Amino acid sequence: MDYVGKHVVVTGGTGALGAAVVDGLLTAGATCIIPYRRESEAQRFEHRDNPKVKLVAAGDLADEAVVATLYDGIPLWASIHIAGGFAPGKVADTDKAALMAQIDGNLVSCFLCCRAAIGAMTGIGGRIVNVAARPALEPRTGAGMTAYTIAKNGVATLTFALAEEVAKDGILVNAVAPSIMDTPANRKSMPKADFDAWPKVEDVAATILFLASQDNKVTRGAIVPVYGKS
């Protein structure tokens, strides 16, 4: 896949999956624009000194003004939306604030970034890749994390509808739906799990890289399961 001369926004680019995506993009020649909220994220990011990486202290991506500023003036080819957050909780234990935190962090941020990306791509085409989650495709598995499941299901629905809206503009919109991924944080929180069954972030990143590339000429409106053996 050739990304030479292509500018790509990667939200959540300083996280485990995001870093794998950025690594692949840089190898393929892309210039990456990566927003972050905390300075510690930027300081520990392994690609922070790469001249093809632009780290942006953006703040909350559920804020319209923040997102508008992030995308302003970028000759954008692709926008990859990994930013989000997870919080478990049964409905009985989840108040409105906790519900809205999941919706803002996962769905609203994705919606606003999609909208800004479309504005930057109109007339030239491009690619958008969102990140849903397995419970978005299998909602019954979201018991005990209902607010998160609702938010990620919204990301999947957004992907379906938006892909239809902008196909005529040469913008292909897709998403991946990972199961629990093999990351240091997940291993620490679930030490007795079968790590070999979990999808590796590099493999999930490879799927994202294809969907965001020029090599993807026809796929749109797909929510691609990336479950590994789990």
Taking all Cα atoms into account, the compactness measure Rg is 17 Å
Shape: globular
Query: Could you estimate the helical fraction of the residues in percent?
Result: 40-55%
- The CATH architecture is 3-Layer(aba) Sandwich
Q: What's the CATH superfamily, by name?
A: NAD(P)-binding Rossmann-like Domain
Number of strands: 7
Q: Could you describe the largest sheet, including whether it forms a barrel?
A: 7 strands, parallel
Number of separate domains: 1
Summarize the structure.
This protein has 230 residues and is an alpha/beta fold. It has eight helices and seven strands, in the order βαβαβαβαβααβααβ. It has a seven-stranded parallel sheet, with helices on both faces.
Topology:
Layout: E1 7-11, H1 16-27, E2 31-36, H2 39-44, E3 53-57, H3 64-71, E4 76-81, H4 96-121, E5 126-131, H5 134-137, H6 146-166, E6 171-178, H7 184-189, H8 201-211, E7 223-226
3D structure, described in words:
This protein is of the alpha/beta class and 230 residues long. The protein has eight helices and seven strands. Strands 3-2-1-4-5-6-7 form a seven-stranded parallel sheet, with helices on both faces. The longest helix has 26 residues, at 96-121. The model has no long low-confidence stretch (mean pLDDT 96).
Note the main attributes of this structure.
single chain, about 230 residues, alpha/beta, Rossmann fold, 7-stranded parallel sheet, 7 strands, globular
